[in-house]
Amino acid sequence: MEKSSVIAALAALAQDTRLDIFRLLVQAGQEGLPAGQIGDRLGLPSATLSFHLTQLRHADLVTFRREGRSLIYMAEFEAMNGLIGFLTENCCGGDRAACLPAEAAGCAPGPARQTRRKLSA
Length: 121
What we know:
mainly alpha; Arc Repressor Mutant, subunit A; 3-stranded antiparallel sheet; elongated
């Protein structure tokens, strides 16, 4: 993965809402999710969702297909794995396997974590 692509991907994922969208799409797998369902699950208005999906598309982290009148968004697993590979290529003296827990090899899902959200007082 090129350094400029890594920077674009990390910049896109550095925003809370985009990270939440990407994680939801990763959990959905290759089937993806309709845009409306993403918005419903995350409580996002359609204009806000559209903006963030566009940013993730520009970073090559998501793609979409049209099914009738619906847009189905999917995570780009190759890009995700390329990003992980770039970030870990020199870890543990070049022995990446020694650095990763067994469940993190490739695209195996890790333990579920709660999404961090800022709580309003």
